[in-house]
Amino acid sequence: MATFEEELKKIHPVLERLCNFMILGKKIVVKGSENFLREGPNIIVGNHIGTFKDIATIYKIVPRPVFFTANKLIFDKKDFDNLIRKHFHRHLKSFGPFFNLIIGPLKSRLINFVSSNIGKVGTIPVDLSKKKSMALEKCQEYLKEGKAIITLQGWGRVMSSDSNPYVMPFRKGASILTYKLYRKEGISVPVTPVAIFGTHIPFPIPGKIKVNIGKPMYITDYMSDSLLATVNRFRKAMEDRVKALFIELLRE
User: Fold this and answer.
1) Of 239, 244, 2, nearest to 120 (Cα)?
2) pTM for the whole thing?
């Protein structure tokens, strides 16, 4: 049976074309690419403002096989189709249904390819309506094997009602993972912070996607007397670092 990495290599040419289509009309500009780790366990965390465009961007710029956590609805063709329809309606308003009709054949090919292969390449399904303990266990397993996983923080869109619309409050998952692996396995997993700007621009409007990659962070620098205090300190530190990286992008 082929490994996830072997399956990923098989479909890499198709994934490249698919990613190019997802960010059609947009140019990726990367700062700090030397901060990506090329081997060993690694968690990449970043803000999530552009649904599939964030994923396509990350896939194109990370110099190693990476494993995503993803909404479990993407694994089902019908559910994935509904997600895309909602995305078009949210961003294109009344023009959404018409655009959905125009790209119907291409969209169907996208849905069939993604839903049929997303599990084969090791993507970790997350049920957003329930507790995520199973997803965390799978992430922990991947990290113990020396893999790199990506966990994007947010709802895949700009939240205008939030105090920082582009960087939502971080969840505790990545912090809990690093704490458990350090305490139970003695593994200090580096966490690479990433800020993304420009993926919120609707498809296929031209523009720039800017990405700023920070130096790896370690939970050992934020240890406290209790699990909760340590997890919260590291979660806040990751969030603050991504916010700082994001502000750097805006100033350029």
Assistant:
1) 2
2) 0.88
